[in-house]
Amino acid sequence: MQFGIMFANVGPFGTATGARAIGQASEAAGFDSIWTVEHVLVPAGYESEYPYDRSGKMPGGDDSDIPDPLIWLSFVAASTTTIKLATGILILPQRNAAIVAKEVATLDRLSDGRVLLGIGVGWLEEEFDALGVPFAARGKRTDETVAAMRALWTQGPATFEGDLISFRDCWSRPQPTQGSVPIVIGGHSEAAARRAGRLGDGFFPGRGDSDTLGHLIGVMRQAAEAADRDPDDVEITASSFGVFGADPVGAVQELAALGVSRIIIPPLSFDPDAIGDALGGFGENVIAKVAS
Question: What angle do CA 63, 136, 99 make, to 5 degrees?
Answer without folding.
Answer: 65
